[in-house]
């Protein structure tokens, strides 16, 4: 867009028609607007000035900020930079805004729900398991948990695992109540 701004100004200064260049610039502007939320205006000289909705200039006449995705932090999540300015938190719409919404809000909410589900499965299965009777002779007292307990709900889905002793020998599954034959 910055290059087209320069070409439009040069063409029109010489009295030439710059309609084709303006059309190319409109196409580029529409593509940029699909990716992120922008504001723009056309100056008297025919150049476009483009800024993010958060106010960071992207294009001013013939100069432009480069947009980069930079990996940061221990999780390697990407931040969006316009030149040296981090614009990640100001992106609210467009493809990038939508992707950030999914990454920063929807996925963490789903992760919390999944952790809650995992913690409830673990506790609701282990409670009757530890109150029952297994097929070991003599019966294991107390019976073993079927799932390894978790300390907190956060991270429960990632920690969800079957007790290795029970996994190795299904006779540790406490499916009986009294231990009597046929129970």
List its traits.
single chain; 4-stranded antiparallel beta sheet; 183 residues; 7 strands; alpha+beta; 5 helices; 3-stranded antiparallel beta sheet
What does this structure look like?
Helix content is 42%, strand content 16%. The protein contains 5 helices and 7 strands; from the N terminus they run H-H-E-E-E-E-E-E-E-H-H-H. The strands form 2 sheets. A 4-stranded antiparallel sheet has the order 1-2-3-4, covered by helices on one side. Strands 5-6-7 form a 3-stranded antiparallel sheet, with no helix packed on it. The longest helix is centred in the middle third of the chain and has 38 residues, at 94-131. 17% of the residues are buried. The model has no long low-confidence stretch (mean pLDDT 94).
Secondary-structure blueprint of this entry?
Layout (H helix, E strand, L loop, with lengths): L1 H12 L5 H17 L2 E5 L5 E5 L4 E4 L2 E2 L2 E6 L4 E6 L2 E2 L7 H38 L24 H4 L4 H5 L15
Please summarize what this structure is.
The chain is built from five helices and seven strands; from the N terminus they run H-H-E-E-E-E-E-E-E-H-H-H. It is an alpha+beta fold and 183 residues long.
What is the count of β-strands? 7
| Average pLDDT for all residues | 94
Largest sheet: 4 strands, antiparallel
Beta-strand content estimate = 15-25%
SSE string, helices as H and strands as E = HHEEEEEEEHHH
Using only C-alpha atoms, the radius of gyration works out to: 31 Å
């Amino acid at each position: 867009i910055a290059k087209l701004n320069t070409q439009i100004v040069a063409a029109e200064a010489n009295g030439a028609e710059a309609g084709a260049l303006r059309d190319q610039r409109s196409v580029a502007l529409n593509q940029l607007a699909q990716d992120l939320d922008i504001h723009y205006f056309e100056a008297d000289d025919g150049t476009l000035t483009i800024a993010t909705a958060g106010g960071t200039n992207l294009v001013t006449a013939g100069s432009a900020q480069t947009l980069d995705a930079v990996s940061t932090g221990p999780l390697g999540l990407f931040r969006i930079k316009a030149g040296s300015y981090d614009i990640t938190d100001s992106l609210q719409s467009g493809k990038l805004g939508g992707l950030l919404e999914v990454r920063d809000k929807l996925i963490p909410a789903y992760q919390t729900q999944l952790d809650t589900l995992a913690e409830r499965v673990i506790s609701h299965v282990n409670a009757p398991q530890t109150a029952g009777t297994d097929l070991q002779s003599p019966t294991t007292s107390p019976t073993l948990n079927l799932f390894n307990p978790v300390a907190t709900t956060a991270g429960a889905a990632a920690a969800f695992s079957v007790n290795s002793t029970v996994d190795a020998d299904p006779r540790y599954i406490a499916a009986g109540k009294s231990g009597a034959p046929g129970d």
